[in-house]
Amino acid sequence: MTMWGWVALAVFIVFIIILYLLSPLISPPPLKLRDAHVLVTGGSSGIGKALAIQAVKQGARVTLVARNEKKLEEAKQEVTTYVTSQDKTQRVHTVSVDLSSDYPSVEKAFQEAEKTLGAVDFLINCAGTSVAGRFEDLSISDFKKMIDINYMSAVHATRAIVPAMKARGQGRIVFVSSQAGQIGLFGFTAYSASKFALRGLAEALQMEVKPYNIYLTLAFPPDTDTSGYREEQKTKPLETKLISETSGLLTAENVATVILSDTVVGKFFSSISLDGIMLSNLTCGFSPVTSLMEATQQVVTMGLFRIISLFYLAHFERIIYRCKLQRDSEAGSKKQS
Ligand SMILES: NC(=O)c1ccc[n+]([C@@H]2O[C@H](COP(=O)([O-])OP(=O)(O)OC[C@H]3O[C@@H](n4cnc5c(N)ncnc54)[C@H](OP(=O)(O)O)[C@@H]3O)[C@@H](O)[C@H]2O)c1
Ligand SMILES: *[C@@H]1O[C@H](CO)[C@@H](O)[C@H](O)[C@H]1NC(C)=O
Fold it and tell me: Is residue 195 flagged as an active site residue?
């Protein structure tokens, strides 16, 4: 390398070190899970239950919220086995309520949870469900249901918790979106829209609550092996299956670990796996910055990731075209016979 090469390298290294040193200036102070009250909606199953287990392992008191009482009780038994502390304050509590129905019953249920385990420090909005199908095959009520369960549930739960968090000047709120909340994919017209809605909510709310030391995390998990996922597989169009298979299948434990550690440090975007990182950098848009390092990575990688995304898009288009050819030829041969 020439002398100028070495100088450029040295400048680059100094730049990275300065960024690294300055980064904490704009990053939120971490919030400890030990002795915190973590309320997990959808905590009786899948990713929500895995989040509850991780939180309990790290010393938190946990409230699980879902509808089905039997499933809640079973989850409580399981989560309780991970209690680490000897003193009796580390407990697992359950609340049965339909989060998508009406706000007053959600507010009442949450008040009860706060009476039992104290003010909520971490609210994790994980309750959700999905429906896949081509636009015209989905019923209009499917669209309403997605908005009610995936979006309104989070609005209700967050509305019930934010005033107390603001008064205490501390808190974390997580919204579990999906990679389908970053890109619209074949078969997900109803689901993607409900998950995109969470992003608008989170960005706007983060601006409002940042002065109160409340930090939001928007998580974008890829396909994760849960009972909800297995249920969804039954109705997914072939195109949707083939397209989402490109990003693999993760375990709920894996996803929960990443979401929880990003929440503790107050990262706005929580993404997992290589294409998750690519998607988050590519679609970061005007989102809040919680680390200078991260902002730099976004600026540097965005153009490159856009180029890579063009290849993905071409690949998805080929899948859709091939499936259509197959469908057309099947329909043709049926007509002939
Ligand atoms: N699994 C994946 O591949 C994947 C990928 C990306 C994002 N996600 C998102 O991650 C979240 C969890 O997914 P999962 O696969 O773990 O789901 P899951 O196993 O089906 O669990 C869903 C949980 O939400 C609860 N719930 C559903 N509707 C509710 C309502 N109206 N009121 C209260 N609780 C309700 C369920 O309990 P009850 O039915 O008893 O109420 C259950 O505890 C969802 O928001 C999902 O969209 C999942
Ligand atoms: C952007 O990419 C970097 C790696 O280059 C990764 O560490 C970071 O978490 C990504 N940012 C987001 C918001 O996912």
Answer: yes
- Sorted by where each starts, the structural domains of the chain and their CATH numbers stand as 29-305 (3.40.50.720)
Expressed in angstroms and rounded, the spacing between residue 307 Cα and the centre of ligand 2 is: 17
The residues lining ligand 2, judged by C-beta closer than 6 Å to any ligand atom, are 269, 271, 277, 280-281, 284, 294, 297, 301
**Residues of the chain falling short of pLDDT 70:** 337
Look up 141 and say whether it is catalytic. no
Minimal CA–CA distance to 96: which of 61, 77, 72?
72
d(CA 326, CA 42): 39
Helices (H), 118-248: 140-146, 153-168, 189-209, 227-233, 238-245
HSE-up (13 A, CA, CB side) for residue 337: 6
Residue type (1 letter), 43: G
Q: Which of the listed residues 41, 101, 129 should we mutate to test ligand 1's pocket, taking the one with most ligand atoms within 8 A of CB?
A: 129
CA-atom Rg of the chain in angstroms? 22
For residue 18, which amino acid is it? I
pLDDT tens-place string over residues 196-227: 999 999 999 999 999 999 999 999 999 999 99
Catalytic hit among 71, 76, 195, 236? 195
| Other beta carbons less than 10 A from residue 3's beta carbon | 7
Q: Report pLDDT digits (tens) over 84-115.
A: 878 778 999 999 999 999 999 999 999 999 99
Distance 21 CA to ligand 1 centre (A): 39
The reply to whether the predicted model has a pTM over 0.90 is yes
Ligand 1 contact, 276 CB (< 6 A): no
Three-class secondary structure assignment of 160-188: HHHHHHHHHCCEEEEEECCHHHCCCCCCC
